[in-house]
Write a structure and sequence with these properties.
Structural class: mainly alpha
Radius of gyration: 27 Å
Helix content: over 70%
Distance between the termini: 52 Å
Order of helices and strands: HHHHHHHH
Number of helices: 8
Length: about 220
Amino acid sequence: VGNFVYGTARRVVFTVDQQAMLAFYLVGIVWFIELSKNFATFVVTYAVFLWYYTPKPKGCGPSFPLLQGVGAGLFYHLGTIALGSFLIATTRPFRLTFLWLSRQAKGEGNAIVAAVASCCGACISFTHRNLEFMTKGAFMDVALSGTPFMVAAQNAHGFVSADVGKIAELTGAVGIISFAVVSTVFTLTLLAIWGFLMLRLRQVTPDQPREHIENPYFEVD
């Protein structure tokens, strides 16, 4: 097939500092994505509460509820949202794993998985006590009551279990508004990118002069 020429191979080697920076970068990216999602949840929930659950004159809605939600999130609750996003992102793998093992231990599924779940009883108990309630539902309570994240997470877990109907309605309203907002932002972003590319294309590609010849090799006198 061919001969291998020694000395031409290349291998990427990261220094310890570069590995630390890469790990820091990955953690920051995950944290930022989680923060963006949870901030959007807070803003939309805040707007839904203003629109549906705040007393107001009949036929009159709140002025710019989404902007009010953005302002409240940035100026009053950004630290809570950032801390909650970090805790949710870092504990999600453990929470999902041990909750799945807990369901397997209670069911009649794989005997091996049930045995592993029995051996991890302490971890499962810790998950149920401290990690199960760490979901984005906590930010609904933050938007409603302005409580710290851990208190809001426990409150959210409690009223989700107690009143499934209202939470389902609120979640549906939040989902619809979130979809509308995300679709609008996505569409506007695409239009902005398309307009920017068209503008750059016109700047880079000048108009062809009249004497332009498409293929000079086939020019006929």
